[in-house]
Amino acid sequence: GRRQEPPSPRFEVYDQVAAQFALLDHLEIERLHACVGASLGGMQSVCAAGHFSERVGKFVSISACAKSFPGSMAFRHAQRQAIMSDPNFNGGNYYDSELPASGLRLARQLGTITYRSGQEWHQRFGQRRHKDAKGPSDLSVEFEIERYLMYQGEKWVNNYDPNSMLWISKAMDSFTMEKVDKDGELNLTEGLKGAMQPALVIGVQHDVLFPVWQQKEIADTLRAAGNRRVAYYELDSIYGHDAFLLDAVSIGPAVKGHLEQEPGGAAHLWKDMAATAANALQAAVSRSATADSLRDLYRALSGGSDRVDRDRLRKVVRLVWDGRLTEAQIDTIFAEKLPSQAVKLGQFLSIRDSLVAAEHEGEYETYLP
């Protein structure tokens, strides 16, 4: 049917979740095994666990928050202004006329900047000029990063309704799980007292839109509210906020473990799978443009610790150097250079010369990570 004409009714994240449970009622589904979501979906997951606790068995919140903060709100405000400043927006009455395409393109470009990380931009684009650039005296698109943002903006046109974007964006801005406590003050701990289910919270270190302190806030507040079954994991991914879309090989095992078991099961899978093979895979992909250093690989696995298990490091090196060194060569280097099971950063960096030397001796093309 015809799309909703403005003015549209204001709705909140809670209203979205309530509508979902109304649908479940219609489908005669009484209880969910789990609520799982990322970004807005992660906000909805926390909301469902807190407000519909009897109907939610477990929940997972990825790259989300329990209360919006001004940084994210500012980004979304700029996106809304880009759309609303387009003359074709016409107060939202554009359905029988031209779409506010220019505003929508700019809004998507602004959003894309927040969805990824500066580290990825640096590795992927640097300061490279694209092949059709006209020169430094011209104000047209000159750099690869500019052309990428233009491409992302163009993809959104005719694929996303501007009014929908505006109202969903507003709902995200006003989201909070706070409730009034006994002192009459808004309190996040009070608001999460209903969310006592097993919880998995995942954050991404390079997330610009939902910084990791917001995911830590969810986990810490759940624990303060009395939830003793909270697992928190932090992913070091260059993909920033979009890691839940682009780095599923890292996030997937932890979510799978949480859905199948208690949070302790997720911890096992995360440590054994996500923090080894997944991080190694990310490193191997990233270095195809600008090589990741051994220091980056170590930090990706350390999780802030000053030591990393030698076997996990060996698995990483095997994957990253696959096709250039044999597993036997790598095992020999580790046995000679890293006799201790717990390896410090300096010790790990010491194997670089041995890896390079072994690579020179073989038939493979030399590559200096």
Automatic annotation (TrEMBL):
Superkingdom assignment: Eukaryota
GO BP annotations listed: cysteine biosynthetic process from serine; homoserine metabolic process; methionine biosynthetic process
MF GO annotations: homoserine O-acetyltransferase activity; serine O-acetyltransferase activity
Residues of the AB hydrolase-1 domain: 6-246
Alphabetical list of InterPro entries matching this protein: AB_hydrolase_1, AB_hydrolase_fold, HAT_MetX-like
One GO CC term, this protein: mitochondrion
Pfam families, A to Z: Abhydrolase_1
Family to which the UniProt record says this protein belongs: Belongs to the AB hydrolase superfamily. MetX family.
Protein name, as recorded: AB hydrolase-1 domain-containing protein
